[in-house]
Specification:
3-stranded antiparallel beta sheet, single chain, globular, alpha+beta, 23% strand, 4-stranded antiparallel beta sheet, binds zinc ion, 4 helices, 17% helix
Length: 165
């Protein structure tokens, strides 16, 4: 007899007053949830998915991030599992939702753990005026910073799963 190991998801736990976190709420409604190299993937409920096209993560404040490689929008994805966009946000969430790109959002699109991007590539989220953006430094062979790029949004190629093409 075999039993599947319990799923463990490394997520920031906001104090949610005992209720299910947005993360639990979303994951409990998805099929084929599993972790691949630190990224959490599942079947996208918003299209006829046979490849676990959905990548999931949490933003710094605990907001659930969903990204479908086929291009389904977050609105369609949550609607397909009987939720609304508001269900992606933690109940105790404070402050306005800043548009733009965070390391966590980038990581979900890339199917990479945000910690890996922060440690290996020194990416970090900064605020510029009223937007988030990701600081992406490049280093020379001696480890000196030679330039810094700032990304305010995902590009088309960030989120496209080309491994099957
Ligand atoms: Zn989809």
């Amino acid at each position: 007899m075999t039993t599947d190991p319990p799923q463990e998801h490394d997520t920031p736990t906001g104090s949610n007053e005992g209720g299910p976190t947005p993360w639990d709420r979303v994951l409990s409604r998805l099929d084929h949830v599993h972790q691949v190299g630190g990224a959490v993937i599942a079947r996208c409920p918003a299209h006829d998915d046979t490849r676990n096209s959905l990548s999931l993560g949490t933003d710094e404040d605990g907001t659930v991030l969903v990204h479908c490689f086929v291009g389904c929008t977050a609105r369609h994805i949550v609607a397909a599992i009987g939720l609304s966009l508001a269900d992606l946000f933690p109940a105790n969430r404070k402050g306005a939702d800043l548009p733009g790109l965070t390391v966590e959002r980038y990581a979900v699109a890339k199917r990479l753990p945000p910690e890996f991007l922060k440690e290996r590539f020194k990416l970090r989220t900064i605020r510029r005026q009223s937007r988030f953006c990701v600081e992406m430094p490049s280093f020379d062979e001696e480890g000196e910073r030679i330039s810094t790029n700032y990304r305010m949004k995902l590009t088309k190629t960030d989120g496209i799963d080309d491994r099957f093409q």
